[in-house]
Amino acid sequence: MRLAIPEHNGRVAPVFDCCQRILVYLDDSDFEAPLAEENWSALPRSLRSMHLKSMAVGIVICGGISCWMEDQIRRQGIQLVPWVAGEICEVLKAYKAGRVSDPCFLMPGRMKCCNRHGRRFGQLNPIHGKKERSDARIE
């Protein structure tokens, strides 16, 4: 399986929808060098998910992503790990070690649960599975 990461200046691009470059790695490799590097600046948003599928990408690790783009990627059967931030090499090491959901790799502002269209983001991180306790009582 192949893994794709949108890249900007050596880091995970902050917004997948408008990223200009994507790196593709073999998931079972040592991640030392990308299998492919593509310039996506001219690739329309509407074709990105299909292009990932044509490249046999099975997992996308990305930063922010719109609901529409998330749906397009998931419809192609591609697993999505959104809201990740950091240097590409560190994120890949963390992914391989099963630590990509550690708080140090979450985008700023992603420490709390959010619910967008009925989906919970940050599911990979155990802190997100817990409901926040409220001491306020409705009387």
What does this structure look like?
- This is Dinitrogenase iron-molybdenum cofactor biosynthesis domain-containing protein.
- Strand 1 and strand 2 (11-12) form a beta hairpin.
- The protein is α/β, with parallel strands linked by helices and 139 residues long.
- The strands form two sheets. Strands 1, 2, 3, 4, 5 and 6 form a six-stranded mixed β-sheet that branches.
- Helix 1 (45-54) runs parallel beside helix 2.
- It is globular.
- The longest helix is centred in the middle third of the chain and has 10 residues, at 45-54.
- It has one domain: Nucleotidyltransferase, domain 5, CATH 3.30.420.
- The chain contains three helices and eight strands.
- The protein has helices at residues 45-54, 67-75, 88-96, and strands spanning 2-8, 11-12, 21-26, 36-39, 57-61, 79-81, 115-116, 119-120.
| Number of beta strands | 8
Tell me the CATH superfamily.
Dinitrogenase iron-molybdenum cofactor biosynthesis domain
Q: N-to-C SSE series?
A: EEEEHEHEHEE
Helix content: 10-25%
Topology:
Blueprint: E1 2-8, E2 11-12, E3 21-26, E4 36-39, H1 45-54, E5 57-61, H2 67-75, E6 79-81, H3 88-96, E7 115-116, E8 119-120
Parallel strand pairs: 1-5, 5-6
Antiparallel strand pairs: 1-2, 1-3, 3-4, 7-8
Helix pairs in contact: 1-2
Offer a concise description of the structure.
This is Dinitrogenase iron-molybdenum cofactor biosynthesis domain-containing protein. Helices cover 20% and strands 22% of the residues.
